[in-house]
Design a protein that fits this description.
The structure holds 2 protein chains of 2 kinds.
Chain A (H helix, E strand, L loop, with lengths): L10 E7 L5 E7 L22 H4 L4 H4 L11 H13 L2
Antiparallel strand pairs in A: 1-2
Chain B lengths: L7 E5 L8 E7 L4 E5 L2 H4 L4 E4 L3 E7 L8 H10 L2 H5 L6 H27 L6 H30 L2 H26 L1
Antiparallel strand pairs in B: 1-2, 1-5, 2-3, 3-4
The chains are: A alpha+beta, B alpha+beta.
The complex binds zinc ion.
Zinc ion binds next to helix 3 of chain A.
Amino acid sequence: MPRPALRTRSLRRILKKIPGGAYIIHYSKRKPSVAKCARCKKPLKGVARERPSKLRKIAATIKKPSRPYGGNLCSKCAKEVLKETKLKR
Amino acid sequence: MNMFEIGRICLKTAGREAGKYCVIVKSMNDKFVLITGPKAATKVKRRRCNKEHLEPLVEKINIHSDASDTEILKVFEHEKIYDKLSIEKPDTVAIKAMKEEKAKKKSLVQTRKPRLRGGKSAAAKPQERKHKEPEKPKEKAPEKKAEKKVAKKHKPEKAKKATKPKHKKESKPAKKKAKVKKK
Ligand SMILES: [Zn+2]
């Protein structure tokens, strides 16, 4: 029986095989939800989905697209927004 | 109407240079054109670009095909493009950096040629190796030969001396005979 703090189902269980061949359970917090476009609400591609502690170890170029509005708008919406803002002078 | 002519100013709408202005310098094929910022003015690199990733504007400048960045910068100032696009004029520092980069690229292209033959190693390394290779055998070869000669003299002196000239004598006349026969 695990200790009471680990009995919650909000934790993710990971099976790890130990050298003796037996399996033990590791507990970890769940990943955040998928990032979505702020305009069309479609799931964004190329955006890292990790806990902040892991995000700190990842390179900036892997975390999100390096284009303007990257990680906030999808590429199609960014294209439209750029045209609207830049060409309506 | 084909809007993607030489000298047309466009807005880049994709990639990390999205939202920046560029000029079309040359048409590559149906889909691609060669563009440039120039980098000193708009931070857009001189590169190939898909037409779908460009939004042509009303502005157009007079340049010839494949014009250099410095030429385009002069035309920009002459036709007051900076005011039309509301961009800041590039400093002398930025222009200098652009020219230095160009010079660097030229030197890279020259050093890349051996890299293609050699494989994955860095651009500068194969050249050094190639210089070293011809030098080493010159230095080491005479020493080895001297050692071998000494060794020969000590042990099988007569046998080798006897065999070597024989081969030469046998081979040469044989060739001569063959030539004579052909004639
Ligand atoms: Zn979107």
